Write the structure tokens for this entry.
Amino acid sequence: MLLILIAVVKRPFVFVVLFLILSLFLVLTDQSRLQPWFYQYAFMLAAFAFYSGSRSEENQHALLNTCRLIIVSMYVWSGIQKLNVGFTDRIFTALINPYLNFVFGRVNLVPRPLILLIPLLEVGIGICLLVRKSRNIGVLMAVSMHLLILLLLIPLKVNSVVWQWNLAMGSFVFILFWKSEESSAREILLPRKLGYQALVLLLFGIMPLFNFLNLWDSYMSAALYSGNLPVAVIHVSEPARNRMPPNIQQHVQPSRTDDGFLINPTQWSLAELNVPDYRERRIFMGLTRKLCGYAETAGELKLTIYEKPNRWNGTRNTRQYTCADLQR
């Protein structure tokens, strides 16, 4: 309802603020809501709220440049995050192989070096959008990329949660950058004075760098579907499984390696919410800590976290926690 009011009323400032307050409350109560598109939309809406106090040309200029900065940062960091073998060997192949296998049989036809051009293309889109002379080229590249992604995803009926995001990103790029020559790269990247645009530069332009040091969340660093994320598995014994309520038991699957059972947080989140789980160690540990309430001994339930893969060879370090470890 608030979003509808924001879209139709002439002066939506109050409704934008109410929406942002509600959004903050929802994120604080469940971090899984902090999906990358939610993070992006919230800060773009906040830009409208921040600059709506005055309709001066300077404020309108700053508003558009702030939104442009968000979009450019997301393309650049998204491409950088994808420069790893996890993207080339798993993410991209899972997207393209169903079509290649249908035509050519089960064979890998796209060499890894060629796949690595895709994230470089994404970085290139962000750079093209910054530079006046190449801005329209960047728009055409971005819109074409999002249309291609939709053409690949929709027939397979997978990742439906990002269909709308791809439509939105293509629309944002066209609205903000097509035949736009009033703002230079410097004006987009370097705000004239400290304020909201400077905050956006910090959060979207600089802080994603710290994700590579595990000091900033992946979903706030444009890492979704990059192959550069940790994964987790929760090992559950049969007695602990039997104590769980039916709504949790339906997400407990038999293990392929032993007589126990497994919970895959990603599959659980997609089944319940149609969004990926929030891929951070503290989230995996918090979820497992809750489930430990159904275990009578420490060994009945264990969490295994597979850390981010090595960028060049895909190997992962693993950490395992019992319920006793998580209660410390």
